[in-house]
Amino acid sequence: xxxxxxxxxxxxxxxxxxxxxxxxxxxxxxxxxxxxxxxxxxxxxxxxxxxxxxxxxxxxxxxxxxxxxxxxxxxxxxxxxxxxxxxxxxxxxxxxxxxxxxxxxxxxxxxxxxxxxxxxxxxxxxxxxxxxxxxxxxxxxxxxxxxxxxxxxxxxxxxxxxxxxxxxxxxxxxxxxxxxxxxxxxxxxxxxxxxxxxxxxxxxxxxxxxxxxxxxxxxxxxxxxxxxxxxxxxxxxxxxxxxxxxxxxxxxxxxxxxxxxxxxxxxxxxxxxxxxxxxxxxxxxxxxxxxxxxxxxxxxxxxxxxxxxxxxxxxxxxxxxxxxxxxxxxxxxxxxxxxxxxxxxxxxxxxxxxxxxxxxxxxxxxxxxxxxxxxxxxxxxxxxxxxxxxxxxxxxxxxxxxxxxxxxxxxxxxxxxxxxxxxxxxx
Amino acid sequence: xxxxxxxxxxxxxxxxxxxxxxxxxxxxxxxxxxxxxxxxxxxxxxxxxxxxxxxxxxxxxxxxxxxxxxxxxxxxxxxxxxxxxxxxxxxxxxxxxxxxxxxxxxxxxxxxxxxxxxxxxxxxxxxxxxxxxxxxxxxxxxxxxxxxxxxxxxxxxxxxxxxxxxxxxxxxxxxxxxxxxxxxxxxxxxxxxxx
Lengths: 427, 195
Description:
Radius of gyration of chain B: 29 Å
Structural class of chain A: mainly alpha
Strand content of chain A: under 5%
Distance between the termini of chain B: 85 Å
Order of helices and strands of chain B: HHEHEEEHEHE
Number of strands of chain A: 2
Oligomer: heterodimer
Number of domains of chain B: 2
Largest sheet of chain A: 2 strands, antiparallel
Mean pLDDT of chain B: 84
Radius of gyration of chain A: 28 Å
Shape of chain A: globular
Strand content of chain B: 15-25%
Largest sheet of chain B: 2 strands, antiparallel
Largest interface: A-B, 76 and 70 residues
Strand order of the largest sheet of chain A: 1-2
Structural class of chain B: alpha+beta
Order of helices and strands of chain A: HHHHHHHHHHHHHHHEHHHHEH
Number of domains of chain A: 2
Low-confidence stretches of chain B: 1-11
Helix content of chain B: 25-40%
Number of helices of chain A: 20
Number of helices of chain B: 5
């Protein structure tokens, strides 16, 4: 009987759904019942953040010391193991420096965005170390680089043209990541993270498969992710190419033996090259200048194309999508409400406000996509110039932008060995 | 001899000197940009206690069910939480029983929770105490929907701090239709209903 009354009450209440929250009064217990005390578990996040930063600096310091001063590989292997274990499997790879680009970009354009100090440090410290010592972060402190480093067994060289063309991908990826981050659409670097699934032992199956393919590739090709995907690596390469202290193989003169070139997994040691086409210096300079005249054309093309598709791109933004759904519903109200629309109408959303928001996002997209197009044009143009300009080199030279400081080459250099054994290593 | 070449190079503004100049220029630009970015942002950067953990605003949540499926973890970090102080301790609980039950017993076809994570204990007539077995809960929010449409809304979904990986961008937050998921500070880690 009582149940029936309650059931009836429920039916009545169902009509007034969403109005009342305290439909049933607090029970007066007669048996002296006490409310259970429930405590929810909290992890020691604040402490761990400090450990993260400390370890980041410590490991980068160790790698810098190993590649610049000591020129040995062993510490880097240990750093890699620690990094994969701690930043990877223990901390599950979040927040990582690669992803922090997006937070920084968003904080730069949006003053309301709250930027945690730890994220800023995760972004700026590796950049600073790259500026001082080269890409020591990539060497083994980054868990992604470390993971690929640890599985790498044999270096097969890719054709130079192919690796230059594939080398455009990180830049374009970076540009799109920035575009999507500053329009508050999504953090695509985090979304398409191939290795985080391994560290978390589960995740999006597509990304895990992609990560597995990358890891299998990494067995034979040095660091495919770092070279041909990583947007942060692209950024660091800018700083490492002008770094203050640079990695040097040996203090003695190079004997052009090519051993270091063969040992380098990321193809950062450029072999000697004699330009077969014997063009005069003036003509060469002229040719280069012509290319630079073509560069603005590429930039214009890029800007134009990206502006054309900017409205399409803005569809990936949540507000724009919602606005389109609402408009569709308004013109054709008979259909079943989707989850988004239910939430929108349920919260008493105002269409005009939403329209304003969507318009703002779209104009943002118009503007930033044009800039992205300029940058994409620049990247493609510079890559083409790089492909066509060949510089004469007499000796093997380290390309500091590409060098990730894995330190494999040191033990191969015969000149370095001689110097080391006779005990007169000097910096 | 070498000196001579060097002199010659310098006079002609040779590529070596130019490259060196470019390198110094690059170094200066790089150093300057590091200083500019860190200087510009460090004043705005807040300690980690500000805006850290992802939490659901229970008032905004519409129980769409995406918390169960969108989390990057295999079993979502979102769990149902029960606010005892809000609960009416009803026998006929909208979160415990399905809406069209014929008999009030614990047969699976009568229960709302697909995993049997909601347990209840008899307190005194006619009150029952409800609790959630977190290891069984998958964050689908079916009980929450039942409770908030028929009852006091004491059952609600929340992101468990010990389970959440604290992703840079919460996958559920991007999928949430009501924008109910935002970051909260470390010192007040949970958005609870019974506080």
